[in-house]
TrEMBL record:
It holds the Pfam family Glyco_tran_WecG. NCBIfam families: wecG_tagA_cpsF. This is N-acetylglucosaminyldiphosphoundecaprenol N-acetyl-beta-D-mannosaminyltransferase. It comes from Paraconexibacter sp. AEG42_29. GO terms for molecular function: N-acetylglucosaminyldiphosphoundecaprenol N-acetyl-beta-D-mannosaminyltransferase activity. The keyword Transferase applies. Coiled coil: none annotated. It is an enzyme of class 2 (transferase). Its EC number is 2.4.1.187. It comes from the Bacteria. CDD domains: Glyco_transf_WecG_TagA. Keywords: Glycosyltransferase, Transferase.
């Protein structure tokens, strides 16, 4: 059962001037270029606007948002949602919405690190298996030795547990400017929703499996696959037990949902 309505396939509101987002399954996806998004996000540090929430969508997250109303709500209420997958771009084309740029964590994390180093902003890495976030922080430091890593912690704790509360206390004691939350969807969005208002930070950014890539524990797909929207084949090949359900079952479901919404969109606008 879908949590969206038939009107959710439209582009950004037409009477606000040029579109700044495209709506896919009712979720507003920013159309700005990655470099501009990074500048905007780092510009939120110190502006007094509270903890801004940055999230991403790909085909898997969009699929989950249709089965999980809380995830859908978190994405629609985020301060910024960006495209992290070619499936989103293909969905936008099918729905005749403006196509967002793709911004992949394994690419933008280096640009973010450079900006943070230059602007003397601090980052906290939360998520991944025990030790992965620390390894990712160490690798970032090798490339950006002046980057301020406020702290790291793994993502293997129950939300609402005493352990989870200690993580919140640790973050608040270190007061990072930006917290990168890599717990996988929908746990990371749930964690941000539960603790966002009590954290002493300016940006909460969900990042999925980013730390696995940065640490080097999971290799990236060859460029010729990534550049043509076929990175999922590589991920399925190296992690079949974990990824088969997401891709072999999830991808056809996503295509079916996109086609259904595209047909409704064409009917409404014909």
């Amino acid at each position: 059962m879908s949590v969206i309505d038939d009107a959710a396939v439209t582009s950004a509101t037409p009477d606000t001037g040029p579109n700044t987002t495209s709506r896919i399954f009712g979720i507003p996806i920013d159309l700005a270029r990655p470099a501009d998004l990074l500048e905007r996000i780092t510009g939120w540090v110190g502006d007094g606007g509270g903890a801004r929430r940055v999230m991403y969508v790909n085909a898997h997250v969009l699929n989950q948002s249709q089965e999980n109303p809380e995830l859908h709500k978190a994405l629609t209420e985020a301060d910024l949602v960006y495209c992290d997958g070619y499936g989103v771009r293909l969905a936008a084309k099918a729905m005749e919405a403006e196509v967002p740029h793709r911004m992949t964590g394994a690419d933008w994390v280096w640009g973010l690190s450079s900006l943070c180093e230059t602007q003397e902003l601090s980052v906290y890495l939360l998520g991944g298996d025990p030790g992965v976030a620390a390894e990712a922080a160490e690798r970032l430091h090798r490339w950006y030795p002046r980057l301020r890593i406020a702290g790291t912690h793994h993502g293997y704790f129950e939300i609402g547990s005493e352990h989870g509360q200690r993580v919140v206390e640790d973050i608040n004691a270190r007061r990072p400017d930006i917290v990168l939350v890599g717990m996988g969807s929908p746990k990371q969005e749930e964690w941000v929703g539960r603790h966002g208002d009590e954290l002493d930070t300016d940006v909460l950014w969900t990042v999925g499996a980013l730390f696995d890539y940065v640490s080097g524990r999971v290799p990236r797909a060859p460029a010729w696959l990534s550049d043509n929207g076929l990175e999922w084949i590589f991920r399925l090949a190296i992690e079949p037990n974990r990824m088969w359900r997401r891709y072999l079952l999830g991808n056809p479901v996503f295509v079916s949902r996109v086609m259904t919404q595209a047909r409704r969109h064409h009917t409404v606008h014909s």
